[in-house]
């Protein structure tokens, strides 16, 4: 390319003859003449074989891509029996694949203050002991404000609707202090699926005056902000830590988040805790009354005077046996009411197969059992009891089977 530019400069600017240019540069006259005739610098082009392996395989590859545009190149090589270079095949398949599978462009989103908080569940694995001391796996609710990138998170006992609503309300009321315009979730079963929200979720959203949006199935990019926060927790919070209980987990998580939210975000180049001020200014205030959260179940108390919540059993006062009771469970308490009277109050157990018994309930059950065993049954006066015997000859008269005199 340098010789081509020099030849044209010597011939055009300095008016040097071709023979003189050839002698000066040590080139042949034909090379100089060819350079002067060409309109552009010389380029190397690899000569294609008249009947290359790709030319033979290309019709079969195109037929496969026409029916299966996203078929991997390794599968294509297997289907067409390719025996040549895999890199050469990959290069050619990548060149023609856009003709059958057009690219899906993604627009860059612009998040406004107070507009949205993205929510998701992160599962850290078996790291936290349950009530028995056995290491269990509990979900972590993660909520991120899309404008400020402020992260709020806490571990929950389960992923049922009542616990999810209780976790969202606690994070909204304590960490954000205001209500965003929208909450973005995926198709979590406790929130809703198939375009239908789970029971209790519409009432929660109505009390907070917030709109809940569910991302399309199999589309994690829709809530990419919270997905990246999940990865941040996995790589920066979890490694090297040990936890003695769910309370210890949440304590350590709160302490770490208070530091993480003060670091400069690599995308916004701002500190989330400072940008949260603008987020809060555009959010709505908290409702005057808290929303209904937790789980509420009405059932009839059986003779064993225990109720099940989340796979664990809790004792109820035996005086409610056979009567309808209302059992409410929050993140930290399990209570039962009978005719608006409190008949059970226990701390919430994390995990399954647990049992909490109030000693007062056991003592009262003994009293009731003794009263049942000692109750008297009136048998009437002593002596033989006369029993009336039916006259069966009446049947002989009706059916005509009696003896004939």
Description:
There is one protein chain. The chain is of the alpha+beta class and 405 residues long. The protein has helices at residues 2-12, 18-25, 29-37, 53-67, 73-80, 86-96, 161-176, 201-208, 224-237, 246-260, 272-282, 359-374, 393-399; strands at 116-122, 128-129, 135-136, 140-145, 151-155, 182-185, 192-193, 196-197, 211-214, 295-300, 306-309, 312-315, 324-329, 333-338, 341-347, 355-356. It contains 13 helices and 16 strands. Helix 2 (18-25) crosses helix 3 (29-37). The radius of gyration is 40 Å and the shape is elongated. 26% of the residues are buried. The model has no long low-confidence stretch (mean pLDDT 89).
What's the arrangement of secondary structure elements?
Layout: H1 2-12, H2 18-25, H3 29-37, H4 53-67, H5 73-80, H6 86-96, E1 116-122, E2 128-129, E3 135-136, E4 140-145, E5 151-155, H7 161-176, E6 182-185, E7 192-193, E8 196-197, H8 201-208, E9 211-214, H9 224-237, H10 246-260, H11 272-282, E10 295-300, E11 306-309, E12 312-315, E13 324-329, E14 333-338, E15 341-347, E16 355-356, H12 359-374, H13 393-399
Shape descriptor: elongated
Q: Can you write the helix and strand succession as a string?
A: HHHHHHEEEEEHEEEHEHHHEEEEEEEHH
Distance between the termini: 147 Å
| Poorly predicted runs | none
CATH class of the largest domain: Alpha Beta
**Major beta-sheet overview:** 5 strands, mixed
Give the proportion of residues in helices. 25-40%
Number of helices: 13
CATH topology of the largest domain: Nucleotidyltransferase, domain 5
* Total separate domains: 4
CATH homologous superfamily annotation of the largest domain? Ribonuclease H-like superfamily/Ribonuclease H
Which band does the percent of strand residues land in?
Answer: 15-25%
Number of strands: 16
| CATH architecture term of the largest domain | 2-Layer Sandwich
| Radius of gyration from the alpha-carbon trace, in angstroms | 40 Å
Instruction: Give the neighbour order of strands across the main sheet.
Output: 5-4-1-6-9
